[in-house]
Every structure is written in structure tokens, then in C-alpha cells.
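User: Sequence in, structure out. Go.
Assistant: Echoing your sequence, followed by the C-alpha cells.
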Amino acid sequence: MTSPVTPPAATSSAVTPSPDTSSVPPSLRQAALDALAEPDPCKKIAAVDRMVATLPLCADLVLHATQPLPGRPQRPQLVDPREVSVRSTQTQQGKAALLHAIAHIEFNAINLALDIIWRFPGMPDDFYYDWLQVAREEAYHFSLVRGHLAASGYQYGDFAAHNGLWDMAEKTANDILARLALVPRTLEARGLDVSPAIQNKLRAAKDNRGVEILDIILRDEIGHVKTGNRWYLYCCEQQNQDPVAAYATLIDIYRVSKPRGPFNVQARMAAGFTQTDIDWLNSL
């Protein structure tokens, strides 16, 4: 090993240049936080596209938000879930309202994936790369639904929406096990259950493109819920907790409505739920 070369001492007239940090890429987790804070949907999607696995990960770095989260446009107006009107999909406006609700879920899903990347340090590298993949697919889903909505003459923001998904993200902001149990394993898994019925409504309305888009979303969402299950089980093992018992406890602690059937058992099993999980759900 060669000895390091000692640089000559600077003279009193020397000026030490400031380091140029303009070309230094952010860490993947910082990029996720920045994308989450972006309010414009188009810019948010572009920011997600720029998040590549070659960015420094900095898994142990504790980050702090400096802007309101999540970034979102002024519209849609957010209201109580009970105030979101249900319209017949047999009308053009009613079908558009349904598509808008799906677009809003996908927009929130982008934010949820970005949030879990930046918020929780100290996880294995694959954890962050898994959720990066989820964020990219959710952005793709949102683009698909928003484009189909636009083809019907409507835009994202034209209908009121509720904030239930992000409310749960805020409630579980300090507990990675609760986040994994109550967002992907509960709220997003519910999407697996209801997708076939929504497809039937669109099929009855002769919206074949909408049915095709939901096929794509359902396929990918099985993978997203599987990712949630994978890391939920990992955290249970790390904390020496039984997965089913821990799940039941977290539902009670956070006062979450217990999942109700009918369940899409085939999709849930493909997404990593075990027969023990399904038996427990059916016992509720």
C-alpha cells in the first residue's frame, strides 16, 4: 500500500473553490420524497420516471420533509367518503365518475409507494427497489386511466374524491409494520376483491377499453399486494410476531374496519395470502 500524498499547504491568497453539487444526483430515497411533494400529476409522473435504481440508495439516512405532503393538485376537491356520490355507469357521466374514482386511487397509490421509500430507513436494499417498481407501475396505471377518462371528455379533478388511502398513510407514518399491514395488505388488497365487479359494470356499459385497463391494473396490483405481504412477513419475523395475530391486533389498534367478503381468494392467494389468512378473514 502506498502512503497517501500530503497536499501542499494553501497560501493565504488561495481561494478554496466551493464543491459543485449541481451534477450530484440525489439519493433514491430523497428523489422519492421530492416526487411525493410534487403537486402536478404530470411532473410527479416524470419525477417517478427519473427515479432509477442506479441512484445512491442511502438506506440508513433519516430524511425530513420540508414541504407539505403529499403534493397534489388543487382539484379534485376532497370530501368525506360519505359525500362521494355514486352514479349509474349506464350514463356517460356516471361511467366517467367511476373512472375518476379509479384514477384517484391510482394517484394516491403513487404517493403511497413514494412515501414508504423515503419514510422508513434501515430496511434491506430490495425493500426500496421493490417499492420503486410499485411506484412506476402505479404511475403507469394513473396515466392509463387518466387518458381513458380524457377520451370520454373529462379530466382528473372534475369530480369530488375522498382521502381515505392517504389518511391511513398518515396514521401509520411511525410504524412500518402497521403501514404494511393496513395499506397494501388491507386497503390495496380490497382492490383485488372489488375489481371483477367493477369490470362487470364497465362491460355492461360496453366500455371494453376500461375493462382492458382494469385487467392490467389487477395483474399488477396482485404483485403490489404480494410485495406488501413479503415485507409484512419480514417485519413480523424481525419483531418475533405471529403474522395473523399481529394483523388482528393492528386492525384493533388503528380502528380499521375489518375486511368483509366476498374475497377474491384466487387473487389474494396469488398475492401472498396464506390459507390461514383466508380462513381468518372468512371467520370475521
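User: And one key feature?
Assistant: The chain has ten helices and no strands.
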